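Appendix B, record 7
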Amino acid sequence: MKLVQQLLQRNGLNTHRLIKFCILGSASFPLYSVASVEPAPIVFDNGIAATPTLILGISHDDNITSQGKESDSISSFLYTVEPSIALIGEVRNHEIYSSIGAGYGRYTSSREDDYFDYFANVGANLNLGAKQALDIEASFKREHESRGDGISEGAGNLLIQPIELDRVTFDGIYSYGAEEAKGKLSFGAGFEEVVYQNYRVLNGPNQARSTRFKDFDAVELTGALTIKAHSALNSFLEVRSKKTDYTFSKNQNNRLNLYYLGANWDLTGKTSGFAKFGYQDKKFSNQSNDFSSFSWNIGLTWNPSEHATIGFDSSRIAEDPSAISGYNDTIKYGIFWQHHWLERLNTRFSLTSNNEKFNSDSRTDDTITYGVSANYDIRRWLSISFGVDVTDKSSSEENIAYDQLVAYTAVTMSL
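Structure tokens (predicted):
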């Protein structure tokens, strides 16, 4: 669910631009980032615009099952094909959009890890007058978890193929307030359902890893009051509540409440971003795992020159673990530097750090990922990317820690 990001956009940035970006970006399933293209959509007589996109990739992964540092890892080349098409049009001043896409991956040295993902979504940006707007979106995704990721972390060698799951989401956000009004109100609601498709019933010592125990549905409600403090600065109060119910593991049922004070800004075209600080309260049905703490979410970008962008983000939130019960107190930091050396050539350097503390088994994980990539726009409709991502994960449990290096190249094509 994208409610938090959409609320931030609605409270000072452009929600329509965000949703369009999500449509065009949602076709990219795999590990790598790709260069941007500027497609020329096909416009039909009825005004509907269609934008097809094709991404072809090849990468090499030296640890495709995220095996522990003391174990023998599997390395392989991966070929990916990702077609998608996005449709957008207007009906009585309302913007309607839809997209479908797929992602196929083939490993040359480990065919059991091949995957086929696909998605479809539909949504609308409804203009209800000068002061009101309603954005709605529904989506379906067939996704996969690579062996050693998600539910199978630390035990990827026990599986014979990736884990598959279906994800259904419905989101809506209503806002009240004119563009230049001193105050704005936003209310959001979202629903998410996840159902795993294989490994649902395991026996013996691995019974607890049966994927059915991670089936869930979640309902999220969000509200925000925004006050325009300056033409380029907004302050806001945000309240968010998410209730998650697990179908076959009732002791994991929980509600996460978040209370934030924050601001977003865009100053002189040089500095933009948001920052919010507050309190989080996560309560479980059995009360044994209840947790509360200080919480934050920060995203900043700075343009020291016309050709350079530096970004920073950080957050702290109590998440539901992928493989075990309870919660993991997760603190994330990230920084990147993107530089346009030429009109068509740019590079990007990134560093992310995740610290996770799990309450159920006193486990602590630290994950650091380094990334470097170069993007070259060959034509308006054709771009190519090269990059390397290096991951170093340490953990208090030896079978969870691993090293991984992925080198990739990808070609993005449109019209």
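Remarks on this record: Confidence is low (pLDDT under 50) at residues 2-32. The two ends are 30 Å apart (CA to CA).
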